[in-house]
Amino acid sequence: xxxxxxHHDDVRAPRQTASPLVLGTMGWGTDxxxxxxxxxxxxxxxxxxxxxxxxxxIYGDGDSERAVGAALAGLAPQVRDGLRVQTKCGIVxxxxxxxxxxxxxxxxxxxxxxxxxxxxxxxxxASLERLGTDRVDTLLIHRPDVLTPVEDTVRAFLAERExxxxxxxxxxxxxxxxxxxxxxxxxxxxxxxTGLDCVQVELGLHHRALVEAAVLANHDDAVxxxxxxxxxxxxxxxxxxxxxxxxxxxxxxxxxTTDEARSPEQEAAVVVExxxxxxxxxxxxxxxxxxxxxxxxxxxxxxxxxxxxxxxCSRADDAAAALDHSDWxxxxxxxxxxxxx
Length: 341
Prior knowledge:
By secondary structure, the protein is an alpha/beta fold. The protein has 13 helices and ten strands. Helix 5 packs across helix 6 and helix 9 (264-279) crosses helix 10 (283-292).
């Protein structure tokens, strides 16, 4: 398959019943092989009803955004109009020059987080150029920049929204308190009172802090992260989409093993396989279904480029509906490696 195949009549707009999945594009690129794989991934995602693409300015040093732009350019207008694109800004990597830097600016000596007004404006302009568009649906602040007041970042975003270059604001990898400040500032400063569109965090069987903060309340094993137990329900109450990146844990729970001495992750993979076989569903669907079973409407960001795995992931809600209380807690216990108190 090539990018040109996306013009074919069998590629239509996402299904009317939209998938909760977000297609992650961190591994996309414009070289020959990755371009072909990206086209196949997008084809599979559209067939599964996925309506959101996720990228970032730093993914592949901008190559992910270029690949997304190329893929979108190959879509029929009615298909493209049914897709939302979100990108991120706010991280400057070592050895790179931030967008909009003055000539002769030295490369960054270390990673830093920058959501200053100047950086946001320059980053968004560079992203739009790479994406080959004049507007992106959602811009996420990638990491917390504690040196820039939240209100300054929000005002810069609103200026870009007023100019028609972006529609919504989201945040990524922020603690609940700072996400709340963004939401409050945005609602206060925007003319229409609109708040955050989405909050993106790492979440899955392998990265359970938000779940365990709720489950292990008032126990010595409770996760001490401030606001961790509050964030998911707050998002649900405020109508903010909670997106989970890395929800499959790099496939650690869907790989078969023949080792006699299994690690806790391998033991959990056995439980996933047993439940998947009983339910007649793919293992990936069970892993994501565990998240979807939560009352937080978690939206998994699936970064695989394998069409088969994308199709498997698209069964997540089938798995969520089939998992009972026993299954859900069995998966949690297996992933933890120790019983609940």
